[in-house]
Write a structure and sequence with these properties.
Layout: H1 4-25, H2 28-56, H3 60-84, H4 91-120, H5 123-147, H6 155-164, H7 175-184
């Protein structure tokens, strides 16, 4: 059975490596990978980990809201990258913001949140969370294969991107059609 905290910490190490790779190369393909990985990680945490944090950990609801606010800041930055496009020169500033915010968020989770979860949740609860997190990540990664970092955007956000990119017929498109069209644009 997967340990949810170990899974999340593995994600953290992978993203830290991607940050280092980006800082050396400034490669737009790495930016795209970072955006997708962060989107999947955040969505899985919000769907599986944070509800348990709020329900079972003393002061967990406050920690949950704080973490979700931090996630939203990164999601907003990723949306801005999507809006500008991966090749835009403004990406450097946005990436530095993402790196700073994610680094601080990871530090908080690994020094405070995860230890409180281990103290407060039973082995059975942790096992269940591990299974649920694994299933959530697998589903999100599968969706991200076709949607990339667009996987967690709302239909309204996708429509806005399509409008900015001048995509015809966007008003009649489903969310999946918007994703597919934006990925091709």
């Amino acid at each position: 059975m997967p340990d949810p905290i170990e899974m999340l910490m593995q994600d953290h190490r992978e993203v830290e490596q991607l940050f280092a790779d980006y800082q050396q190369s400034h490669d737009q393909a790495i930016v795209e990978t970072i955006c997708t990985e962060l989107t999947v990680h955040a969505a899985a945490e919000e769907q599986v980990i944070y509800p348990a944090l709020g329900a079972y950990v003393p002061d967990g609801e406050r920690m949950r809201h704080h973490a979700e606010e931090e996630h939203q800041e990164v999601k907003d930055a990723i949306f801005e990258i999507q809006r500008l496009g991966y090749a835009d020169p403004g990406i450097e500033r946005i990436m530095q913001t993402i790196i700073t915010n994610v680094t601080e968020h990871v530090e908080e989770e690994e020094t405070d949140v995860f230890s409180k979860m281990r103290e407060s949740l039973t082995a059975e609860q942790m096992e269940t969370l591990g299974d649920e997190l694994d299933a959530s990540k697998q589903r999100l990664l599968s969706e991200a294969d076709t949607a990339g970092a667009l996987v967690d955007l709302t239909k309204e956000q996708l429509y806005e991107l399509a409008q900015q990119k001048g995509i015809d017929g966007r008003a009649d498109m489903t969310k999946d059609e918007l994703v597919a069209t934006l990925r091709q644009a």
